[in-house]
Each structure stands twice: as structure tokens, then as C-alpha cells.
Amino acid sequence: MLSITHTALYVAFSLISLVTVASSMRHNSPIPPPTTSLTDRFPHLGFDAAFTYLFGGKNIKKINDGSCVSITLDNSSGCGFKSKEIYYYGFFSAAIKLPSDYSAGVVVAFYVSNSQVYPHNHDEIDFEFLGHEKRKDWALQTNIYGNGSTMTGREEKFYLWFDPTIDFHEYSIVWNQYHIVFLVDNIPVREVSHNEAMSRAYPSKPMSVYATIWDGSDWATHGGKKPVNYKVGPFVAWFKDLEMAGCAWNQTSPAASCSKRGSLSRDPVEGNEFMKLSEQQQRGMQWARSKFMFYSYCNDLKRFPVLPMECRGGKV
User: From CA 242, how far away is CA 173, in angstroms rounded?
Assistant: First the structure.
């Protein structure tokens, strides 16, 4: 019979082994292929043609004539860039490689927003990558705000089934009148339907596309317990294969400048694959959510004793 000390050591060793196996499984799990590759539908855009500096310009480097861009956080500044065009609905995608090694407190974001135009009533659709301690995983956080609904953070968090620091992986957003879909390597990980429950909080105004890296020491890793350690910096993220396909918004006109067969439309992406998820995409999303999602605001009764309307039997 094992002694108490030996039993405790055995249990501790078993837990460590389970964590190690779980981490290994995340990075070696088979990935169901999507029905179609949405990222193959749209052209890649060069930096100078489609983007402009947002802040920290000295920390933004263009490679291969702007087909690839690095953004750096160091002890002087983070940085970011934004699209020249403003879009009403569309498909937005980037292949991203994240900083390696210790990156606690670092936040890399790829998102669409109009906070600069509507500071008190803004919309936003976010991919946020939250830094990690050594030998820990990056966390992928998705979130949306509609019409200034910032008091209700609709966060969902995932681990990834690959190491996002070794190679580039595609992160894409579909936003139209039917739904918002977050995709990782063309596999949906989250769908937010434009239904009655979400009607007031559904992003509804034109938005720009952003990519940023910044210091999130006060919240990003373990609720702010692990701040950025600049002694192991700088922290560099890489972006390439940038895609934006949507209705470009003319700020001097109330109409979006896109059309279908001569008639104005607010939905720039055509076909059933943009209106609803296919059966295979739904299976892929179920696979991703069941294996890799570790937080959803719809399950956080401590934070929301009364769940948001869309969580009460609705589809999020």
C-alpha cells in the first residue's frame, strides 16, 4: 500500500502527465477539412495599397514589398496598422505567426472596429491572441460588441490544435446580414447568428480592419498576474496573406460602393457558404468547440447571474 506521501506524489505526477498528454493532443489532433477554403476565394493585398499606419510606425516592418508585415512590441511602444477602406459587411482574413517563447501579458489582435468613428456606440469583431508563460499555450479569444454594448463582453476562449509560433495560420472573419463566423485555417470555431436575441447587439455600422500588438499586462495573462517582461523581448508577430472583401464605404455618401448585377447590396459575399454553415463546417465547428474551447461567457453565471438573451437557449 502506498504511503500518503507516495500517494500524493503519484497523484501529482499523474496530473502532470495528463496535462502533458492534453497539450500534446492539442498539437497533434487530426483536423477535419472544411468543405471549401474560403481564403482561396479572395486576392492577397499588399500593405501600401490597402493599409496605413495606426500607431508605433517605427515598430512596423514591411517585407517583400509589403506582402508580409512584422509588428513589434518593445519597451518603448507597441504598434498597429489599419485598412484604408471602411467596410460594411465582408470577409477579412490574415495569416499570422505569433511571438515565440515567453510572452505573458502580450496581446496580438486582428479585428474590425469603428471605435474611432463611434467612440460611445461602436461595433467590433475581435480575434485576440493572449500571451503565455513558458511552456504554456497561447489563448485565442473571440469577442463582439454591437452598438456600444461593451458592458456585455461576449468572449469565448480557445486553445489551438497547433503551435501558432512555428508557422503561419489563417484567421478569418465572415460578417454579413446573416451571421458572424470566426474561422481558424478555414474551420469555423464560432458562429453568432443575426437573430432576434442579438438584434440590438449585432454589429451594424461600417468598420475598418486593424492589426495590433500591445501591452495587456493588466488583464491578458491570468487576469493580470503575469505582466509583460521586456527583458525577454522584443515580441514580434508576423502578418501575411491579408484579405479584405467587402462593401467599401464612401464616407461622403450613405451608400456602400458594391453591387450585385448592378443593384446595391450590403452583402458582398455571395453563395450559400456565406449565408449558413455547411454540414461539414458545422461538424468542424462542433469538433473545435468540444475539444478546444475552455471559456464561454454563456457559461459564466458568476459574471452573468442573468445570462444575456442570446445565451438562453439561443445560438451563439
Answer: 12
Distance CA 65, CA 108 (A): 23
CA angle, residues 41, 37, 137, in degrees to nearest 5: 125
Find the radius of gyration of the CA atoms of the chain: 20
Mean pLDDT, the chain, whole residue set: 85
Q: What is the model's pTM?
A: 0.87
SS (H, E, C) 134-159: CCCCCEEEEEEECCCCCCCCCCEEEC
The rounded distance, in Å, linking the Cα atoms of 184 and 171 is: 5
pLDDT value, residue 21: 40
Q: What is the pLDDT of residues 217-230, one digit of tens each?
A: 999 888 899 999 99
CA distances to 150, 300, 303 from 153, in Å = 6, 11, 10
Q: Which residues are catalytic?
A: 124, 128
Whole-number Å distance between alpha carbons of 26 and 20: 10
Residue 299 has pLDDT above 90, yes or no: yes
